[in-house]
Amino acid sequence: MTDKIQIVCENVKQPAIDFDKIEKWIEQVAKSHDRIVGPLTYIFCDDDKIIEVNRQFLQHDYYTDIITFDYSRGKRISGDMFISLDTVATNAEIVNATYDAELHRVIIHGVLHLCGIDDKGEGEREIMEGFENQALAMLNDMK
Fold it and tell me: Which domains does the chain have, with CATH numbers?
């Protein structure tokens, strides 16, 4: 990892994925949305931590796979992204995906939020999924 992307683990082991490749991928995805990557922090955690963050900062009382705090300015994306590895594993089973594939989807989901893509309004979830699929195809095409 460079100075741009930091990894923090709270109550979990760091996922065994190629973070150098992930960093290049994130930069490629950001560029495809006319953005540049600033400081990003991924906080990998368990369900206990994600619900604590969800309750404290968003007043939501449910588990989720990712919570993104956006500090972007202009075209420079920046933020903190809490990812529950417990929920990633559960969701991977539900959608019949591999753990790594689901983790990659969640990692880029946060980046897409930082690029200005929402998924809460009518029709926005489908737009987000389309961009996720495009980004995942980019990752699969990388050497």
Answer: 5-141 (3.40.390.30)
